[in-house]
TrEMBL record:
Name of the protein in question: Helix-turn-helix transcriptional regulator
UniProt-listed PROSITE patterns: HTH_CROC1
Segments passing through the bilayer: none
One MF term in the entry's GO annotations: DNA binding
Organism, as annotated: Flavobacterium silvaticum
Pfam families (alphabetical): HTH_26
Domain HTH cro/C1-type, chain residue ranges per copy: 16-70
Amino acid sequence: MENQPTNELTELGDRIKNLIKEKGLKTMNVAHDANLDSTNLRKYIRGTQDIRYTTLLRIAAAIGVTPSELLEGLQITKKG
């Protein structure tokens, strides 16, 4: 079951999507290189599924960027 997107997940998903496009990659190939099902990668891109740290590392490597490039400048909402 998919979760409702949060601002942070949506922003991260947009960044992943834009980097894939900028690099001229195909989502299906990035999913394969990151050892992910393409359906799950699409959920990450839409911001409807939380991304584990290890998954984030694999996605970054598959795109050819560092994890910090994916996370740099993301607006994190402090809870509590």
